[in-house]
Please model this.
Amino acid sequence: MLAITILGNNSAIPAFGRNPTAQLLQTQDASFLIDCGEGTQNQISKYKLRRSKISHIFISHLHGDHYFGLIGLLTSMSLLSRTQELHLFGPAKLEEIISLHLSVASVTLSYRLYFHALSGEGIIADTGKIEISCFQVQHRIDCWGFLFKEKKKPRSIIPEMVKSYEIPSAFYEQLQNGADYLTKKGTLIANESVTIEAAKPKSYAYCADTIYDPSLAEKIKGVDLVYHETTYLKDLENRAAERFHSTTIQAGEIAKLAGAKKLMIGHFSSKYESLEPFLTETKEVFENTVLAIEGSCYKI
Amino acid sequence: MLAITILGNNSAIPAFGRNPTAQLLQTQDASFLIDCGEGTQNQISKYKLRRSKISHIFISHLHGDHYFGLIGLLTSMSLLSRTQELHLFGPAKLEEIISLHLSVASVTLSYRLYFHALSGEGIIADTGKIEISCFQVQHRIDCWGFLFKEKKKPRSIIPEMVKSYEIPSAFYEQLQNGADYLTKKGTLIANESVTIEAAKPKSYAYCADTIYDPSLAEKIKGVDLVYHETTYLKDLENRAAERFHSTTIQAGEIAKLAGAKKLMIGHFSSKYESLEPFLTETKEVFENTVLAIEGSCYKI
Model:
């Protein structure tokens, strides 16, 4: 199970009640916070999400609208006496920023914070059930996207079938991995007759802030859901390029090139009050598109 | 005219919809922001206050609930193309924090930010109409209170009277400063007969986060309105002392000792949902007390 809840969908300056970027990816055992604009801790409370479930935080880049809420969240977790460790991934300088904030306040966190500086593309975390990798995107400053992939799940055993074939429980793990079973009498029991295939692993790609860059599609090939920014509508293609951002049409193109199943768009400029035109325009290129709406949860 | 609008009245962790500390002191020509907890820029928008009017920002100390919203506000002002200079007062380390945040984002502010490190008690700013001084308070880390005093205002000329005595306009400024006028015929026109006394200058003291400290009263003697924290109710006097905070009774004592005309209490602990007991208890000691309620504006 993967589900993404939007905590903020606006670019730069908060506007029209929209908050800066933050998303919470929920899995069966843990939650991953992706970016953390100012006020994210309040958004987490507002939508009744459990901050204690957050095991990993991923910060794409050091523009304020993606991380100014981080230090507040980290210190609040400590004030609430969190004890379980927390893993934080982001550009190297983020560690210095956090250390400085904590040192001026003479604060020692109540939990262990492991900082992992992003330095190259590839796998950065593996929780056993989810593998997370990062990839570079093209923005004004060092900026990273994140790809979350469920790992292949073991097949499910059909209890009445293993019982009827008298398969010993010691062999269950091999069954779950797809092995056939040879009975003492020499009969081969095909795996398919005693197990069921697990749900297909799902994947989510978060492309952060980026200029239109077709090479991005290769990095997220075949993803189930891709989040791609659409800071501007299509008529502002030049402004988007100047500011290393993208338009609706461009986000749609990337989703198409990547062969993504679904596209979610966000990071809307503060100049727009209505978001509907974003959806309409993006659908011209990629039909299966949704708007990142604050407080909404999208199952993947 | 002095008026204080409360943007946040909670301590440490946001709770019950209450935000961390921030107050906006409005004067005839400019606004002063006092502390700037996370989300202050949203509170400013929510209550339809003009951030462009803010000329000075005062940060009492570097605990997050008093300044985590500052960097977001400063950068938003820049994104909105502010040009007028801004004066920021706070503990010395604040400058390093701001510089680091700006440098990692490769941001140059659109306006001049003058940073003034607080190092000793005394006058730190004088806008011509308001004189601002700082004083040390006793907290876990370096912490400052601020005293805002309107300067003595010139007397107002009574137009029909100066006309009837044929006093030349070149003498008006001296009249406003209280001088009598000697006519060419040698008659002395008493100042009181041609001018009216201006409204009495008002003052506001912001005592930040502090342990109960009677010596504080001396520093704010006779103030019109004093803001004193009441993190805890009276039964938690020991906890308050341990954490360098104050109770309701203690805030009332300080207001009484200082001979303040009015007391405003705030910085309520997240453990309390209802604020009414704070008011009831403080009034046991100092009757003219109000709660700092978010969004409320108190004229001084």
